[in-house]
Structure formats: structure tokens, C-alpha cells
User: Fold Sterol desaturase family protein from Reinekea marina.
Amino acid sequence: MYQYKKRQVTPRPDKELRLENGRLGGYFSLLLGFSSLLAVLAYLFPSYLTTAELRAIYNIGDLQYILKYGMWLSLGFGLTNFIINKKKRLGFAGVSLTLIAFALAANVSPSGSTEPFPLAIGVDWLVIALLGSFFIFTSLEKLFPKYRDQVVLRDEWKTDFFYFCVNHLLISVFLLFGNFVVSSFDWVANPTLHNWVLALPLALQVLLLVICADFVLYWEHRLFHEHKKLWPFHAVHHSVETMDWLAGSRSHIVHTLVERSLVLVVLHLLGASKVALDIYVIIAAIQAIVIHCNMKIHWGVLKYILVTPQFHHWHHSSEEPAIDTNYAAHTTLFDWVFGTYHMPKGVWPAKYGTTKPLPRGYFKQMWYPFRKLLG
Ligand SMILES: [Zn+2]
Assistant:
């Protein structure tokens, strides 16, 4: 009988973001300065640094308004860091980035056409996702922490932040690749099925999308775990040893491309309405972040039905009974059906990560599966 242990998280007061130690002001200034500079660059070079699909959704006027206040806040936070913190590096960096953003915004006018470049870099997507995710999910983790002593800037946060940036900047690559794969499967599309799905009420369409996507994701995920040659590509995602909202960003680009394209193909073959597809994408994106969060919420009976942080944390555990379990992404249905459900009552994992350590850092991890294939 396996003896489950409690996870030990050591308090690290020196790493905590607090107003009184100046680190909160410093890092806020840096975050807002970095975002402001990116946002100004996206504004100046819209054709190369903004995403056509996103521009259709957001209002540039609203964003400029937020940007202006973000820049002033960055200067204010930087100032608190200068006053309080002995090391003034953070505040200095944040204020410098903001001042460069101010100077560029004041002296340079937007150049080139706004005609979207097919492989534009998703700088706008990065800024929106970074600020949105940071404020929403860090707040949730602070309000409902599983481990109160776990710091926001935990070990290897820089690696996962780099993953987060790359994943968002490459949005056009993911979209183009996804569209290409979907269009190659057009010949399988069945108008009778499309009409049947379209006739369903919206809620049922969304439910159908969730279940079908979950089925595909379950088997794709299981294959990446259980096939020797595929595992190194997915092991990258499992190499993370601290779970929080940023941890899920760590994923090998090959695995991300395969996973997203497979789901897109299935969703498009079903032929649900655009609204249903949009709702599914939003649910999936939020759930993918939430399940990695350092967050404990009482889900009631839903915890038996939905993939929750506790359920997915077990998937990331390196403890023997949890290896190769809890594959599903949305509901626990297919783990029940195919015998991989693992949720010991009231217990959370004591250890996360892979049983064999992986190299650290983005580029070494990108190379790792190929090295395994060649060696
Ligand atoms: Zn996995």
C-alpha cells in the first residue's frame, strides 16, 4: 500500500513580492514597462506585430487607454522600488522600459500598412494574455492557495515565462498550421452530420465539442505518454516541478502543434456553429491554465466530473501510483472509462516532475526529444 505524503513547501520570505520589501513595486514596474514597450511596438508596426484575428475583436482605443495608465503605473511602481529597495535594479529596468515606450510613442508614427502579414508575430496577443493571465490567475492563487508559502517567482519561473512568451508570439504559426491541417481534412466533412450538429441547441453543441475534444485529447495524450519515441516530446511539459498558472506553458512546440491541430480537425469535422466553437476555445483555454494553478477550490460533486487542479496535479506527480493516470483535459469521463482515473481521497501529490530529470532551459528542452531520437 503506497503511503501518500504531504508536500513540503519551504517559506521563502526573501523571494516574496511585498510592498514593504520593494520587490512588488519593482516587478510590477518591470511587468508594466515590458508590456508597454511591446504594446507601443505593436502599435507602431501593426502589420508585423499584431494578429489580424485578434484585431477584429479588440478595440484599439480601449487598449491605448489601458496602455497610458499602465505606463504611469509602471513609473509609480518603479518609484516605490527606488525608495524602498536597496537593490534598485528592478525599478530602474521597469522605468527605463517605460521611458523608452513613452519616447517611441511620442516621436514615431505608425509605419507601413495595417495589411496583415501572414506570419505576423503576436505581440498584441502576448501583451493581452500576459497582463490578463497574470492579474486574474495570480489573484486566484493568492485568494485560494493550495500552498500559501509557494512564491510567485518560484524556481524556473523564468524558463516558463519564456515558454509563455514564445507560445503567444507564435500565434500565427499555430493558426496557419492548424488551418492547413484542417483544410487537408475537408474531404472527410459530412454535410448530414454538420446539419444535425447545427440543429442542436447551443449548449448541447458546446457539450458535444467538449466531449469529442476530450476523447481525442485523452488518446493523443495517452499515446504521448506510452509511446517510447513520443514521450520525450511530452516529458518537457512534465519536467516542471512547481505547479502554478505559468507551469502549463511549458510544452514542446511539436507536441503543441500536434495537439492543437488534432483537436481543430475533430471540431471542424463536427461542424458546430462559430459561437459554439468560440465558447469551446474560451473554456478550453481557461481550463488549461486553471488545472495547473496552485489553487484549491471546493468544487463539490463537480470534482468527480470535471478536470480540476487536484485531478491534473496528480497527472503531474512523479509518485508511483500516479504515473500515467488522469489524461483527460476537460472531464474525467474517459479516465473512468479507460481505467486511468487516480484521485486518492483528500490527498494531493507530494512531488511533481519527471522520474528522470530533463535538461533545464527552453532551448535545451526543445532539443531534448530530437537528441533522444538520434541517440
Ligand atoms: Zn501528460
Q: What stands out?
A: Residues 60-84 form the longest helix (25 residues). The two ends are 37 Å apart (CA to CA). The pocket of zinc ion is lined by residues 221, 225, 234, 238, 315 (CB under 6 Å). DSSP finds 17 helices and no strands in the chain.
